[in-house]
Design a protein that fits this description.
Structural class: alpha/beta
Number of helices: 8
Strand content: 25-35%
Helix content: 25-40%
Largest sheet: 6 strands, mixed
Distance between the termini: 13 Å
Radius of gyration: 17 Å
CATH class: Alpha Beta
Number of domains: 1
CATH topology: Rossmann fold
Length: 221
């Protein structure tokens, strides 16, 4: 199937997320240069949810995704920095039913006080990694390396947005490269989902995003 012909049915919580992201200006459309050097017609910044204050709505959507994917885990690991607040939001929203410990990493090792590179619960059991965006997959690979010394099982990675772009090592999506290494990837929305959400995003922006998808979307396995 050609990349431009991919269609996807958007679920209720995905449409709610897109509307919330646009309202909070976490998802913006225009001309943006990414770290990769690519010119993108859209940009996602999860920090905007913090400024907008729509955290309860966001956490409820995250729980809907967890339930939809039937994810089972003992604790959450949130990579610095965006994964810290996203992972904490998810754990807090789920705490009415059961306690979910949270762990996150420092960008730099601390040599005083409690020291170390990790803050929060000691990693153990079944872990869900929670982050904002999956692009190249580098941040997720770093998280996997951080957790290797501990007695853990990474049951999956949950991201707010999967850009579905090529990974570091091949023309495959970063998500597919990670799946091949045994780590399942779950997203609230993907690039395909956004293009399928015709009631939320303008036709002009959808056309630009579809053109971007033709050029940069990674291959499925």
């Amino acid at each position: 199937m050609a990349k431009e012909d991919i269609e996807r049915s958007v679920k209720g919580y995905q449409e709610k997320f897109l509307k919330l992201a646009i309202e909070a200006k976490a998802l913006k459309f225009g001309k943006y240069v990414l770290k990769s050097g690519r010119n993108s017609p859209y940009f996602f910044n999860a920090s905007a949810f913090l400024e907008h204050g729509s955290l309860k709505s966001l956490s409820q959507i995250m729980v809907e995704k967890v339930n939809d994917a039937n994810l089972k885990f003992d604790m959450i690991f949130g990579p610095a920095y965006k994964g810290i607040f996203l992972g904490t939001l998810l754990a807090n929203e789920m705490s009415s039913k059961r306690k979910i410990p949270v762990c996150f990493n420092r960008k730099e090792m601390k040599d005083h006080g409690e020291g170390g590179s990790l803050i929060g619960a000691s990693p153990k059991g079944k872990i869900l990694i929670v982050d904002d965006v999956l692009s190249s997959g580098l941040a997720i690979r770093e998280s996997i390396e951080i957790l290797k010394p501990f007695d853990t099982e990474i049951v999956g990675v949950l991201v707010a947005l999967n850009r579905q772009e090529r990974g570091q090592e091949s023309d495959q999506m970063a998500a597919e490269e990670l799946r091949e290494s045994g780590i399942p990837i779950f997203e609230i929305v993907s690039l395909d989902d956004m293009i399928g959400s015709k009631n939320v995003i303008s036709n002009k922006d959808l056309e630009l995003m579809n053109e971007y998808r033709k050029n940069y979307r990674g291959a499925d396995v």
